[in-house]
Amino acid sequence: MSEEFDYVVVGGGSAGCVLAARLSEDGQARVALIEAGGRDRHPYIHIPAGYARILGHKRLTWGYRTEPDPGTADRALDYPRGRVWGGSSSINGLGHVRGHPSDYDLWAQKGCTGWDWDSLLPYFQRHEAYAGGGEGRGMAGPQPVEPLADRPPLMDHLAEAARAVGLPVQRDMNGPVREGFSEFQQTRRGRRRISAARAYLHPALGRPNLAVIDQALALRVVIEEGRATGIAIRRGGVESVVRARREVILAAGAIGSPQLLMLSGLGPGEALQGLGIPVLRDMPGIGANLQDHYIVRLGYRLAAHRWSANRRIAGWRLPLEAIRWAVAGTGVLTWSPGMFSIFARTAPGLEAPDVQINGGPVSWAEAPGEGRWPGLAIGVPEAEPGMTIGVWQCRPESRGTVTLASPDPAVAPRIAPRYLATEGDRACVLRGMRLARRWLATPPLAGIVLGESRPGPAAESDADLLDFARATGGTVYHPCGTVRMGGDPTAPLDAALRLRGVAGLRVVDASVFPDIPVCNINATVLSVAERGAELIRGET
């Protein structure tokens, strides 16, 4: 038994929520949104600082792990992706950051016509409602974007320290100039996180032409005579087909979209045959080109608790912060992991920043375990005041893969990011770590920052720092590129996001990026989905 719609969208994350809302807004087209998770009712979703408690939640995330790799000291890393209305926008760090204009111009140079910065800027403006206003910003879109509700007292000192190492200070991190120090902006309204589900999907739920089919695992794309005609799903133990008269649109993310295509016989032919999956089209580009930002977290000891949030979120003081959040909409519970950011060029001849440094005045206790460099127990503050600084390379050269581990759709795919696989990536991360050290050792922070606690001053050589990076680093939760668009025939998608060789099938999510942008990627995903909706409706 099946039900028929005009459009069937798979994945209720950032892109899927945009598509469901935009494609159904004319009141005419019937739209189905299929989501594996359930409604976004968990209270920690809506408290900005709640991210620290739900990144590993068994019901709200997919529970992915990466393959062990030499680049990460043979560790398998947690790889959180949202499995709930709003997807990863319901569990992320709330950062709203545009890429560098050259990111999107490079996309266009690779044959992605219409995806240059000037063409994509209107879609950034369309989705955002930025409370601060300013040049090039959107102020009337569905997605609220606000400056920090609780500004740490350390912020001005950090800004002056950035000036001391030759970096400018920007009023708007998403303004015309991106390089330098700036304060984060959050996908928040008042005290609450506003995910893509809250911004786009919830306001559209009353439309009779929109159906949300959640708690439904997508099994495969149904392809008949070269055309995608629906999605096979399993819901409550029952399998059925949700049919599409016009198009099937995959918005399952950089992991889910290539997995679903491969389960449908679209992907690297030899690998699919090895799993007993009939090959409809041999497309080696599906699941290739995985890109992500790799973060290395440095720890710093601060002189007093007034500079750090550690004591504010421990013991009997945490309920006070909960009251402050509920009554006034301020306090540490409005914080996100990135409260401030530096974008910097650390090598000559670069057109855009190659290093991003994020952080906040809170530090985490070391996790128990063996090895030279202990990990961190994210969510468990240190007893002493501290700060955490995350360093990552903006445009990594390394490329990984997403491949099937099984023909069973319920089995997670193999995720191999291949972090730090090139000499260029390793050198860039080292430059970023040393820049962070110079920044935090400047006179404006004297008497406030007492010294580095992780990895500590004993780690001085490149070999020591690289060892620390491999042993303790992890994902910044920005996977993309696994079903890339491009002008060359090896790109699975054309510039209109259509899958080559299969009619009625598009992909609209982070997997379509040819290259990772110089930013936290959620704002770019929203913009890609806004433009994707227009392409689907034939308006561009």
UniProtKB/TrEMBL annotation:
Domain Glucose-methanol-choline oxidoreductase N-terminal positions: 253-267
Required cofactor(s): FAD
Gene3D superfamilies, sorted: FAD/NAD(P)-binding domain, Glucose Oxidase, domain 3
Top-level taxon in the UniProt lineage: Bacteria
Keyword terms of this UniProt record: FAD, Flavoprotein
Family: Belongs to the GMC oxidoreductase family.
Official protein name in the record: GMC family oxidoreductase N-terminal domain-containing protein
